[in-house]
Amino acid sequence: MTTFAKGDEAVEAWMSTSISAVDREATVRDVLELMKSKNVSSIPVVDSEGNVVGIVTRGDLANVVLSTDQILDSDYPHFEDCLWAVELIQRRFGTDKVTEVMSENVALVHPETTMNDAAKQMADDGFHHLAVTKNKKLLGMLSASDFVRLVAGGSGGKDAGA
User: Fold this and answer.
1) Which of 40, 112, 127, 142 is the most buried (most CB within 10 A)?
2) CA 67 to chain centre
3) Can you give the residue ranges of the CBS domain (predicted)?
4) What is the pLDDT of residue 151?
5) What are the tens digits of pLDDT across the range 17-74?
6) Dihedral (C-alpha) 126, 128, 132, 133: value to the nearest 10 degrees?
7) 94-152 pLDDT tens trace
8) What is the pLDDT of residue 70?
9) Cβ-proximal residues to 93 (8 Å cutoff; 6+ apart), any chain
10) What string of H, E and C letters represents the secondary structure of the chain?
11) How far is the first Cα of the chain from the last one, in angstroms, to the nearest whole number?
12) Could you give the domains of the chain?
């Protein structure tokens, strides 16, 4: 794997610390609204202690939309009665808990991890986001766009990531 001079820098120099996380009681709609307002592609899910227990990505939400779309495309016997479709959409996005759509398999790194090692982990595991934790507590997030900034010669910064 090719390494970059700045790749020896610690993740903490590049991670975003202005992160928005939700707890397990958040709804899918809460996550959608947060992603839109913060213009981010993932939201970590934390427990009451601030420990990372999951992550919701745009991909997870796309799967919800696709499964809802498949249900709507089914041969429902009374298609003229569309109230069931409205109820389905409201339930899926209004009241379904984030725990029903989140991924529990979250890629974690420590703040001292080098950017080269974090990039290797991201590539090996197929993740686009890494939660930066210390003693199980969420400190920040590292995304693929942070690596683009690194390779492009940008600078790190506590809130430079997306």
Assistant:
1) 142
2) 19
3) 15-74, 102-160
4) 81
5) 999 999 999 998 899 889 989 989 999 999 999 999 999 998 888 777 666 555 555 5
6) -50
7) 778 999 899 999 999 999 999 999 999 999 999 999 999 999 899 999 999 888 888 88
8) 52
9) 27, 28, 29, 32, 64
10) CCCCHHHHCEHHHCCECCCCCEECCCEHHHHHHHHHHHCCCEEEEECCCCEEEEEEEHHHHHHHHHHHHHHHCCCCCCCCCCHHHHHHHHHHHHHCEHHHCCECCCCEECCCCEHHHHHHHHHHHCCCEEEEEECCEEEEEEEHHHHHHHHCCCCCCCCCCC
11) 25
12) 5-151 (3.10.580.10)
- Residue 84, amino acid: W
| 15, two tokens | 């991670």
